[in-house]
From TrEMBL:
GO terms for cellular component: cytoplasm. It comes from the Eukaryota. Belongs to the TPD52 family. It holds the Pfam family TPD52. This is Tumor protein D54 isoform X5. It comes from Bison bison bison. Residues 1-22 are annotated as: Disordered.
């Protein structure tokens, strides 16, 4: 168990068990049991689906608990290594910026904007030359 009293070993039978630090929205199975069966489903099928839903919701709760325990453990490791939250944010932003710059969408956008800039520059240059000629002709 780690220092927070949580077993984060995924192979452990106690995986992700938290004290009262986690709160989840309760599942109201009584309401689900009273709901009429969906058209086309027998009562047995509906009951099986409700049981599966309950199981999946329980798994989601367990996964949230495991994730929370791992996040705490990660934070503790970072603290022990002297990594601050600000440093982690800086690294994440830097990594995200780099990932974006190497993406195909970014490269295509950059290329398109570069071409548009070149064409705009050429058009303004041509227009400036034409205006200069006209002003010269008017003198």
């Amino acid at each position: 168990m780690d220092s927070a009293g949580q077993d984060i070993n995924l192979n452990s039978p106690n995986k992700g068990l938290l004290s009262d630090s986690m709160t989840d929205v309760p599942v109201d199975t009584a309401v689900a049991a009273q709901a009429p069966a969906v058209e086309g489903l027998t009562e047995t099928e509906a009951e099986e689906l409700r049981a599966e839903l309950t199981k999946v919701e329980e798994e989601i709760v367990t996964l949230r608990q495991v994730l929370a325990a791992k996040e705490r453990h990660c934070g503790e490791l970072k603290r022990k290594l002297g990594l601050s939250t600000l440093e982690g944010l800086k690294q994440n932003l830097s990594r995200s910026w780099h990932d974006m710059q190497v993406s195909n969408a970014y490269k295509k956008t950059q290329e398109t904007l570069s071409q548009a800039g070149q064409k705009t520059s050429a058009a303004l240059s041509t227009m400036g030359s034409a205006i200069s000629r006209k002003l010269g002709d008017m003198r």
